[in-house]
Specification:
Strand order of the largest sheet: 2-5-1-6
Number of helices: 8
Shape: extended
Helix content: 25-40%
């Protein structure tokens, strides 16, 4: 098995050193839009709304990056308040009441955020939050702002200067709004599992995607938590678990030789081999429907049972260098390291 049972020290992600930033001049038109790869936690510095929102947000994000050396982003959302809305109660004929907004309009809001942090409790995140609240960026204290939010800030500045606080004093931590809803519900790993995956060359923990596809599973046919096991039974289980891990490693290497992006992962009861790195499992079509991601289809077709034989009732899993794959490849969540270990 290509692994060690000791827990290694791992580099943490989060607030990046300012020396990592390019010394090149920033494109004056760049908005630095937020993506799923940023975060997962950020500081919401401020939000601009209405006419001039994009220009005001652009000036601020560029100043935060250029002058203050912060990893800043913009995130834009549009709101439509022109349509009819369902009101409370019913009309005399039993139909639902329809209402309209008093100020019917379409509004664009552009948020400026600063990241990237592993958690909202990260000490670096809290330090950055305190710094942002006290900053006096020229983009918010000058005369060029046009958006409504900017006008609100200017009214606040007169009071904030007396209190020694900046126009972004209402900043707070938020999760990346582009991440899927279940992102923060993914199970985290404990020290034991982290340890047995520590020195694995192609560990699933290193997979950059949100999902991968499990193509083979090797079990130890038991668990360390089993009650009333003899020493001999426990030793036998550990031996089977080691054999499962070695088989998973051999298969990973074999798949890599064939050009597949293969990963291995080991836990208390089994080892598995996964293939691929996907940010999403389905792709939305123009008609609003969803289709499986092409890479997911490619992996399950190539590494799953022969479809013709399967249709005829013959379930014959594939073998690679004599190692049997699962009957049906399935997508899995890539496991997450605990906060502070990333």
């Amino acid at each position: 098995m290509a692994g060690s049972w000791s827990v290694p020290a791992r580099a943490q992600s989060g607030w990046l050193p300012t020396t990592w930033f390019s010394k090149q001049k920033i494109d004056p038109q760049a908005m630095f839009p937020l993506s799923e790869r940023d975060g997962p936690w950020l500081v919401l510095a401020t939000t601009f709304r209405g006419e001039g929102a994009r220009d005001d947000a652009r000036r601020l994000v560029q100043e935060l990056r250029g002058r203050f050396k912060m990893r800043a982003y913009t995130h834009e959302q549009a709101f439509d308040f022109t349509g009819a809305q369902r009101g409370l109660g019913l009309n005399p004929d039993g139909s639902p009441k329809r209402m309209r907004y008093a100020n019917a309009q379409q509004v664009v809001e552009v948020a400026v955020m600063v990241g990237d942090f592993a958690s909202c409790d990260d000490s670096r995140a809290q330090k950055a939050l305190a710094t942002i609240k006290s900053l006096q960026p020229e983009a918010l204290t000058g005369e060029q702002g046009k958006s409504r939010a900017f006008a609100d800030f200017r009214r606040m500045i007169g009071l904030d200067k007396q209190a020694g606080r900046g126009p972004m004093r209402l900043a707070f931590m938020i999760p990346n709004p582009l991440l899927p809803e279940d992102f923060f519900n993914r199970p985290q790993l404990d020290d034991f599992v982290i340890g047995i995956n520590a020195d694995v060359e192609h560990s699933l923990l290193d997979c950059p995607g949100r999902y991968s596809v499990r193509v083979a599973t090797f079990t130890g046919a038991g668990t360390f938590a089993d009650q009333k096991t003899t020493a001999a039974e426990e030793a036998g289980f550990e031996s089977r678990l080691v054999q499962a891990a070695e088989k998973a490693h051999r298969l990973t290497v074999a798949l890599r030789r064939q050009g597949w992006q293969a990963w291995e992962f080991h836990d208390r009861e089994s080892s598995m081999v996964c293939v691929g790195s996907l940010s999403q499992l389905a792709i939305e079509q123009q008609d609003g429907s969803s289709q499986p991601h092409p890479e997911l289809v490619r992996i399950t077709t190539a590494l799953g049972p022969d479809p013709d034989r399967l249709a005829a009732g013959a379930i014959l899993p594939k073998r690679i260098e004599g190692i049997l794959l699962d009957v049906q490849p399935r997508p899995v969540d890539v496991p997450r390291l605990p906060i502070g270990r990333r």
